[in-house]
Amino acid sequence: MDYTIKIGGEAGQGVQTIGATLAKVFSRSGYHVFTHQDYESRIRGGHNFYQIRVSDSPVSASRERIDILVALDSESISRHERELSVDGIIIYDSSSLKRRHENSYFINVPFSDIALTHGGSRIMLNTAATGAVLGILGIKTGILAELIKEAFNKKGEAVISVNIRTADAGHDFASSLCINCGFRISSPGGQKLLISGTEAVGYGAVASGCRFYAAYPMTPATGIMNYIAGKEEEFGIIVEQAEDEISAVNMALGASFAGVRSMTGTSGGGFALMQEGVSLAGMTETPIVVALAQRPGPATGLPTRTEQADLLFLLHSGHGEFPKIVFAPGNPQEAFILTNKAFDLAEKYQVPAFILTDQYLADSQWTYDDFNNGKIAHQDYRLRGEELRRLATYQRHAFTERGVSPLAVPGESSCLVVTDSDEHDEEGHITEDAETRKKMVEKRLLKKMPMIREEISPPLLYGSENPDIVLVGWGSTYGVIKEVVDHLSKEKNIAMLHFSEIYPFPLEEKFNYLNLLSSARLSVCIENNATGQFAKLIKAETGYIFFDKEIKKYDGRPFTFNELLGAVNAHIRGL
After folding, report:
1. Which are the contacts of 392, defined by CB distance < 8 A and separation ≥ 6?
2. Which 3 state secondary structure label does DSSP give 158?
3. Judging by DSSP bridges, how do beta strands 522-527 and 549-552 pair with one another?
4. Of the residues 325, 345, 368, which one is the last residue of a structural domain?
5. Is 319 in a helix, a strand, or coil?
6. From the centroid of its chain, how far is CA 44?
7. Which residues are bridge partners to 569 per DSSP?
8. Residue 204, Cβ neighbours under 10 Å: how many?
9. Where are the beta strands (DSSP E) in 72-153?
10. For the chain, how far is it from start to end, CA to CA, in angstroms?
11. pLDDT tens digits, residue range 21-52?
12. Buried-most residue among 78, 268, 353, 485 (CB within 10 A)?
């Protein structure tokens, strides 16, 4: 069983409400779920959709074929009717759309009338539509009723009751019209965790001990701030909505200097404003974690679409030479683990660490039977309390064999804790001495980088261990490439190399992935950008790895399974 459901309509019609509720019902029923959204950058109007793939087997990407289209407006029909599968159907309300469709695959469900009759208000149209989809699938409304109780708990029993009645009425009406639709499915039982990339980054930050988060709202990074703000009271976190991204990064640096784990987040336009702050972190060796959620540029670009075009911008961010760490998770599981690793390594080596996501990963939802938290790293690398008070002298930027200086918390010692954005001596005071400058660059950069590189994990190999064909991706392309490899491995000797720990570039000692790439008959790099930025990075880092083919998509939309499969097949024909 593997069905795709698309809810289409204008912003403000409840597209996201219906989609998110259905995804929760499916995950709590024990199904595997993958969702992604497509929405315009306006509060009302424009065409939006929420796509859900529900299956009895694990899924990690969207398909192009739609089995059930819930059309809340006429544009959803004109845009997506051609995407229907052979047995696909369209659910619509003819009274709302002011038109009746006679084709057999149209099912007219009067959402508005059901909402008025059983709920007393048209506002419950979304509840009726959600119930109708469950009716067509043959899923009972018990779990939906639980979700309604959770959502409207503070509004009282009366509101809960009318919403449940409306859901049941929508369910029964659609079920009676769709006896022969063929979508009847039975619940496998149990339930799965449903989590998005944004939630996973926020969860990882909270679990890592983040106690200060400053940001200026910018899609698609705002969800991280919202998630962490929801944990403020429970975990004693301070969340500050700054007046701009310059203030946000400097607030986070100030909080980190003062002794707490700190984070900020933004998208490309906001990150452009943070450049001086990024360099300040490098010069003062102040640990900080930054989430950079990509969207298409330049300038405002496509504010609510997806792209992987900020990789080289991030790698070269901040003027001057200093170490940085860049992680690009491919799924929520990696987003959680790598956010934790970013906090740990940022403090361990006193450098900025970055979590590079995009709109697709941020908004997409995955299900897990067991969300493996791994071993959470949460070591305090700072000098505090009695350990600090026993020091007779302290030098913030002391030269050490490893290049990592003692990191003291100001105010907890009689010793002065000082640093400066100008070049400085071991105590942190300004200097222009040439020999000191040379030694500081070596301390900050040349001594730390080899140690940081040792901490970086190699890419994931999925598929054949000695492949003829290697598909290479990074970040959010993980799920769709994985499904393409699963499909093609029935007939081809194929594998995927997925990079999620991007910089410093991983060593070959742990896994000789460069030998695997160079020995393959065909290597293909797959990216959501126009210039092949990751392919350029591999060429620059290795000096000899050149991909045979590149598949690049830059229309602001993610790869679907069918689309990528077709592109890969075009390159491997006759191999």
Report:
1. 415
2. helix
3. parallel
4. 368
5. coil
6. 25
7. none
8. 28
9. 84-92, 106-108
10. 32
11. 999 999 999 999 999 999 998 878 889 999 99
12. 353
